[in-house]
Amino acid sequence: MALEKARVQLLNPDTGAVITEVDILTTGSCVSYVNENATVSDFRGIPAGTTFKEGDNISVSDILDKILYPYEEMEIESVSNAEGKSVSSDTIYYQEKFKTIPSFTFSSKVKVGNIDTLTFTLKRYNNKTGDVKDYTSTIKVTAGYEYLYTQEVKDISDDTSLQLVVTDGTTNIVSPTVEFKFIYPMYVGYCDTNLLLATYEDTRIAIDPHKASEYFNNLIATGSILIDKRIIPEQDLHNIIINDPLITQNRYYPFILYPNEWSKIINILDCNDDIITGSFHYNNELSIKPDNTDVHASQYTVYACKESYNPQLTAVGYITFQFEYGKPSIDYKGKGVPNLTGFNLLNNLPLDLRLEVEKYSDLEEIEYKYDGMVVFVDEYSSYYRYDQKHDLWFSTNQEMLFGNTVPPLELGKDGDTYINLSSGHIYQKYKNIRWEDKGVITVNLSGDILLSIDVWQRGRLYKVGEYVYWNGKYWKALVDTTSEPGTDNTWVETKPTVTQGPQGEPGEAATVEIADVLVTDKDSDANVINLGDKFHARLRFIIPKGEKGAKGDKGDSADIIQFQKEIKELQEKVVELNNKIPTVATADGNTLYFKNDNNQILMKVSISGLGIPIMENGKLNHIDSKSVYLEKVENERYYDIKFMDNK
Question: Number of folded domains in the chain?
Fold first, then answer.
């Protein structure tokens, strides 16, 4: 049953005047809706938490309209570019500088909401001058349907942006931006480098900017198949190669030619991703005319390869150019040429000639080093890896070697570590020129494993807990001290132990031989020289010439056979002194200490009663001595070789 309609008059309570007649079933624009309970959620344009109080004067009609006819926003679905292609996001189009984009129709598809009157404004921004021009129109549309907006755009010759703004009186929406940028072109291709180069007074061969400018301008003007123009922004260029250049016999050189508005190249890679920047000539002073007019000439940079290829065979594969955006770059000075094989399977390395240098010092000359770069140094027959964080080169082929003797020089490479299982000493090879004793593996009385125990040094302050080696013993500092170990209670002796390693190969017996004894007129030339090596010592004694003595009685002839027998017996005893031949000498006051590779004192040379320091500028000082003899030092394992007055 249909509801009956009833009309009522609404009167002013003070005057009795009729305000309006109301159909209470259908309309009531002057009837307020009152409800002080807050809404619990957003609904049809009424936000959550809304209340309707008596004084708000919100009509029942408005509430019903919001519920039955909710607001629907319009939507820009797409816009078109100068070529009529649809785009749905901000887009940049590049055009060659000093060219013109002819007039075209800008269009946009708009999905209309529930409001049927829209205002369209196309904004044209001149990005060079900052000027803005608006094209505005108000159009009656059909709610809920799609509308195609169009607007003519006049010629564009400067950097320009277009954007559409649409409003329905409630909200505004904007379209994606269509931007047009005018740039200088860049070029890639092949060139005859011989026509670009010049030899300068310093014998340097480099690109002559005048020759190069004339050459490339001619290629551009004639539309040569050797050159390919690209209208692109600054970016890394991948897989750059000329397609089907139709070359038969000539050999040409890959090149890139780009405006100086771009950043400079930081790397050029060949088809194997090997850095080959060093194999390119470089010049940034070329004057190039992209449109064949002097008016629009601009400064360009060229990189032309030093290696030639037959483009028809496409032997080069492709080249990648990497730019250092926003940073200045200088000409690359490292080594490197494009290659065809790509990888050294023997060494598991790319074939980039920068990955091999002649001398260690050449590593510092490599520019554009990258973290983890590995280079082989011929001088030391070793590989080195670059640590970019610390700007240092580290040997990568380090090995741990073992033996029962001091490591021979020919063993190992730079950075290798060697452990003498007999003595516990640790050695590290330094640049293939020597083994450095880094200390000894020891275990103190507390069971601590210690490495690199240094010899005690006079005058140095040692902190509590530090370990030193002195007088054939290991010591631990009980307090901070400068005292000599063993002379007071600031040190305590600790007994190191090492694990016995496997039996090594029989070593060569050490020998000691008195080569000769020379007499010098200059007392300052007195010295003891080892003419042999650390395994076969041949000692030459140089002693000052004494005063002429009285003539003695005639002696008997020397028994040569007996003398040789005694020498042989002495040498046989010396054989037992394996690894006890002095190889290091240090001076302290009037004493010269001879030590072995384990830093143990084997002999010391002292001067009795003269009070003159024995060493000065690496030689014995003035010593008024006339005889030499060996004396066993009581309770010690070494001898004194004493220079004494004949008196």
Answer: 6
